[in-house]
Amino acid sequence: MKHSFLDQYSDRDSFIHRLDPRTKFITTLVFILAVALTPPNRWQVFALYFLLIATLLLFSKVPIFYVFKRSLVIIPFVLMVAIFIPFFKEGEVAGSYNIWLWQVSVTYSGLQVLWNILAKAWLSILSLILLTSTTKLANLLKGLEQLRMPKLMVMILSFMYRYIFVLVDEVMRMKQARDSRSFGGSRLWQLRTIGNMIGTLFIRSYERGERVYAAMLARGFDGHSRTLDRLNFRQADAYFGISFSLILILTSVVNLLY
After folding, report:
1. Partner of 60 for a Cys bridge, out of 16, 42, 186, 230, CB 3.0 to 4.6 A?
2. Which of 103, 153, 143, 122 is nearest to 50 (CA)?
């Protein structure tokens, strides 16, 4: 399995890549907050937000197809939550449909809420893809630690990302071993085999965690995330942060006025 799921293109060289991880993280949070607070009927503002994030993606030199494919992953999960809103939201009826013995109605207000959720979720995930694709995960976690994020949470994120690939490889080896033994039989036997695999994976993960922790203590681990790259807040970071914030503020002011 590829061990660069999130920061696959973090080694490229662009203006966005050279920004401090703390700058990119804070501006991403500000962007998501601005998107979340935008009223659902302001589609012009959403278009401006998309233009802004698309411009930054072009500057970052991250492949557009990669960004588009990765951003579509979130859409099914959003639809699972919001797909029934148009049928239960009260308001003016946009259409009625007969489904077997039931008659369901779709309202304009429900469709507007659905559009609002989809637009905000997609814009937010685009900003997160820009953040993770242009920042090495180790540097991002170090920036989060310097922003006073709890060290325990930073280390949990670090180990989760580092060892999730190891666990996936372990699962694939167990699956290959199971298939090589002519996996079949009744449905109950198959469920029992899968349950045994899950239990074995849990025990192996626990034992691996104990070994890794003991090895880290033997090497003087003190709970801090260390990288070879030093984080430096430069003038370019200040200019970018101020410019980005001013664009969002100007967009919000135009939204309030018109």
Report:
1. 16
2. 122
